[in-house]
Structure formats: C-alpha cells, structure tokens
Amino acid sequence: MDLFKGDFLKSLVVLLSGTIIAQVLNIAFMPIISRVYTPDEVGVLNFYLQIVTFITVVATLRMELAIPLEKEDSDRYIILRFASRFAVLFSALSLFFVPFLSWKEDFSFALFWVALFIPLGALLHALFNIGMYWSLAQDAFKTISAARLIRSFSTNSLKVIFGFLNFGGVGLIVSVLIGMFAAVAVYAKDVFRVFKLFPYKKGSVREKELMHKHRDFRLFNLPHVLVDLTRDLVLASIIVSFCSTHDYGSFSQAYIVLRLPLMFVGEAIGQALFAKLIKLIEANQKIGPFVLKLVAGLSLVSFVPFWLVSEYGVELFQFFLGADWCDAGRYAEVIAWWSMVLFVVSPISFLPIVLKQQGSYFALNIIRTLCLILATVVPIYLNNQIPLEDLLEIVALTQIGINLLLLVYYGIIIRRNDKKRLV
Fold this sequence. Notes:
Blueprint: H1 7-36, H2 39-60, H3 73-94, H4 98-101, H5 109-137, H6 141-164, H7 168-192, H8 205-213, H9 215-242, H10 245-282, H11 288-321, H12 326-345, H13 351-354, H14 358-382, H15 388-419
C-alpha cells in the first residue's frame, strides 16, 4: 500500500489546491492586517472566536461527523437536516442571553453588538461544518476547496477595508462573519440540489434510528471536544485576567501563525485521511502502515520550519507583522515545538472516532486538559507575578509530553484494529 497512490492522492491534491491558495492569501494579507489593527483588537477577535467555537460544537452535537459514515444519501441527509435544525434552534435560544449582558454598567453599545454577533457566528460556523462533511461524503473535494478559498479571500479583504476605516475589533468580527456566510453559501448550493429528493417527515422513525446509531458522537465525542475547547478557554481567560488584552492578542497571534500549516495543510490531510481510512476499514484492510507513513512524513517536513521559529521568532515576527508584534515573536519561540507536535498529531486525532474508541480517548483527553490547567494555575498560585513567557514555557513542555503520549495511544488502538483485519 503506497501513501501517494490512488484515490487518497487525488482527493488530497484537490483539497490542497484550494487550501494552499487560501493559506497564501492569509499570509499575503497578514502583514497588512497586523499593521492596521493593534494586538488589543486582535485579542478581541480571537477571544470572540474562542467563545463562538465552543458554542458551535454544542449547536450540532457533533452529528455532522456521522454524515460520511452512512452509505446512503437519504440517511446522510437525515443527519444533515437534524444537525442543521438543532444548530438553528440552539443559536436562536442563545440570543435570549444577549440582553442580560447589557445590564452591566460598563457594557458599551459597541460591545453589545459584539455579544450579539456570538449566536450568529456560532450558527454560521455550525452550518459551515455540516456542509463540509456533507461534501466529504459526496467526495466533493472541489467544493470544500472552493469554500475555503472564498472564505479566506472575502474575510481578509474585508479586514483590510474595515481596518483602514478604523472599525477596530468589531470590524474584524464582521469580516469573519461575512466570509463564513460566503463559504456556507457554497455548501448550501450542493445541499439544495437534493432537498426535494428527501422530503422532511416529522418524527421519522429512521431519524430516531440514526440518532441512536450515532449516539457516541453526543455521549463521547461532544464532551471530548468541549474538554478540548475548555482547555483553550481557560488558557485565554487566565492570560486576559492575569496579564492583559495586549498580551493575549500577542500570544493568540503567535499561536494562530504557528497553526496556519495545521489549519490548512494539516486539516486537508486529516479530512482526506478520514475518508480514506473509512474505506480501508470497510474493505477489511490494515490502516497501520498508512498512518505510520503519514506521521513520519509530517514530522520530516515540519522540523526545519518550526526550528527556525524557535530560534528566530522575534526577528521573523517583527519583519513580517511589524514592530508592534515583538511580544508575539517571543511567545512563538516558546511554543514552536508544541506547535510542531500538534501539526503531526492533529490530522490523525479522529482515529478514536473511526475505530470506535471514543470512551477511552475521552478519559485520556480529560487528563490532557487537567495537565494544562494545572500547568497554568499552579505557577500563578505560587507566583502571581510570573512572566507570561515563563508560564507558556511550562504549558508548552506539559503539552508536548501529553501529545507524545497520545501518539502512543493511537499506535495501540491501531494495532488492535489491524489484528482483526484479514489483510
């Protein structure tokens, strides 16, 4: 079995064709955006996105992941319809919490609109994820690439325009929402083509059967992802509370820059691998050799870039983003190796889903989150004046260790799976 032959390579090339262009656009716009927005304004956007991402996961109950697992389009559409209805309902309900936020004396009219954008952002992100997995099930990799490309171009273009108009953090948020809406429209076009083929039946017996069949996504995967997101929110909240919005903006920018390869190339590889491994398992074939080659390849190609950041982060960030982002460069040097490990591990993080090991993975992920929280809280408890750079170093070392343990865990469940295969 060759990693770079067959349908996997074809689907990967199609996905990468759009995602790499989107990544180039992000990188091309970033030096402009970083010079028209301050670290404080970027911190507002990134904290907003943390909240939106958390709500998005609950809004779909992670049922979008079940769409590619079904063989019949009728069953896939039932799951898509359920996830979409729940997303709309959950987002609508969350609107009722927004007026309560305005009761605070220091809550400005502008911040009220920022809070109002949270439900809308959650809904658009939820529909984007649902559409992406529907396209994966249809092998519509061109659609996924097109959606990412349109999202990247529209979001970045609007960020620049609103930046020159001095819209501040609100302008960043509005740019993201418009870009996401454009991407959702791309997916919606394909979904509407089959809308009339599978009319909605209230209280459908088949819907109940499918919800029961894929209940593990609600019972295990949903809590697991919420634990992941809680980890990110805790770290963000601590930085904002004990340091400043400027520090969080600098850290989050460094974190995002180092995750660009993961968010685009790594994510595309993961999605293509997801579809490939399902087919291998259905064909009763081993997946171990395939995954091993992928991990080795990602490790080799990522070593030099992340090493350069670990040594010359400050110089690179100042040159690329501007003088205001010196702190981001220092933080990037600290978390570079942590980011490399995430780049290697994240594309295969869905293995417990495919291999039906979500229960054990959830327990391991709780330990992972507790380690990060302890690595963050304990140093601050011992010294509430600890520099953020020192705190991040402790957090990074902890997360590198736990992610390497995750690789060992993946190897164990893959080996157990392959022993059951005939080939």
